[in-house]
Amino acid sequence: MKKIIIALILAFTIIIGSIGYVISAGVDNLNKIENSTEELIEEKTVETPSVTAEDIIEQVYEANGFSEADRRTDIELNISESINRVNSTDDFRSSDLINSETNKSYIYDRMLNSIDYFNSLQATYYHIPSTGYSYYSTYCIQQGENPKSKELIYNENGELISSCSFDGKYSANVNGDAENIKVDADIQKQKAKSINSIQNKSIEERIINDRINISAKEIKSENENNIYEKLPVDIESSKKLDFVSLVDSKKRIKYLPEESEDCYYYRNNLPQLPMSNTQYFSQAFAFGFLSDFKKWNIDKIDEVLDRECFVISGEIDGDYSEKIKTQKFEMWVDKEIGALLALEGYDENGDLSILLTTSEFVVDESIDQSVFDDLSNL
Fold first, then answer.
1. How many CB atoms lie within 10 A of CB 289?
2. Which of 21, 66, 325, 361 is spaced 20 to 30 A from 216 at the CA atom?
3. Can you say whether residue 158 is alpha, beta or left, with left for phi > 0 and alpha for psi between -120 and 50 degrees?
4. In angstroms, what CA-CA distances link 345 with 109, 130, 285, 330, 335?
5. What pLDDT, in 10s, does the model give residues 184-225?
């Protein structure tokens, strides 16, 4: 009997020991699996780099059907000092040189990508569009790590009709009440009045001071009829999605068979100003006036407000010509950054149909930060 009990105890001990061994082995295996998993995760983390802004913009570029052959490259001007300030009508040989394909490509590219070529800008201009009403604009832009901007828009009589401020995080627009905007209902009559007066220097001097002294908060509370809108802006995401900056300027008009029309690829308006981009980022005028290199010429290089400008003249036709009621034009394009400093357009009768003139244009000089608005509590 004792032998049987001893044998049973022995067997039980062996079983318990085996179970303990299995459990111990299982724990060891589990630890090994956990360690292997951690090592694999670490390896994966090392092997898979984080997605950069450059990666995103490249992916969006390709997703929109653009290839390596469509990529934008730097264009160098081919204008010697001897050609500078020579009028093409006086010197045919100089005309051939200054109107090379390279030089025209340079101007076209600068106008379509002008925000790449300045860090800060302070400007005031007067504009009579082809349709609608004339206005004055005064604005300032700061780009880079601390982007900010501000514009004030005034009607023909110098009354504030809208403002826009961007503080790096928010964009706020205030549109004035209808009484300030209201002018003669006859657009052509109003335009004739504007052309006769062209610019009012006293208005321009005053609105430059307004830009410096009037805040978005004051404009908002000035009139209960003002229409106010404030929106958050993710400027970094806008930069990441600005794939058009990678596209060759000549490839930014693409025919879409499914739509049976051309598609125009515009870059994001990073400074966030809805009206003043007419001057500092004249993509629409570049597409409309300069996309056909055969229809315009570089006449000379001249100065506007101590800035060297290409003086360009040409003709347009087709739908765009009908839309803006213009057949011939002359424009002054900043040589360095591609901004539009002056424009004159003429209709089929030779009458002025469109006008832009500039009274202030200061590039890359420090801006007093008190000019900009803090919109966080607005």
1. 25
2. 361
3. left
4. 21, 9, 11, 7, 20
5. 445 555 555 555 555 677 899 999 999 999 999 888 888 777
